[in-house]
Sequence to fold (132 residues):
Amino acid sequence: MKHWIGRHVVIQRTDHAMTTVEGVLKGWDTVQEKVILAPGDLAIPFRSIHRIRQANSSAALHSIGYIISHNIQFDNAIYFGSSVMIWKGNRLVAGHAILTAHDEQTVTLSDGRRLLKDEHIFVVRSLRGQTK
Fold:
């Protein structure tokens, strides 16, 4: 079940009301028999879990990172020098691009290319789950 680590999930609990908890699964501890859910590092014992399912992914969730859709996200990607995947439809335009500037309509890449925001999907690459 460790394949759930790093994913946005909904956990249905086995309490009397069958309550649900939603968040990103941070850890799966087989020794202490619990999962850790973020935000807040909520520990849920295995015995209290009825079912785990993937949350309805919002438009901003992507399997390898987060889709940039707001100006502040573009600003942060530029400031931190984040690696960005760029898609045009189903075609990968750039796998590891670095953004250097943006305005309301365009994004400028480190290689000088300017791309239209409304024609491309910009995905900030992020490491999700655990590394060992």
About this structure: Residues 67 and 123 are 4 Å apart (CA to CA).
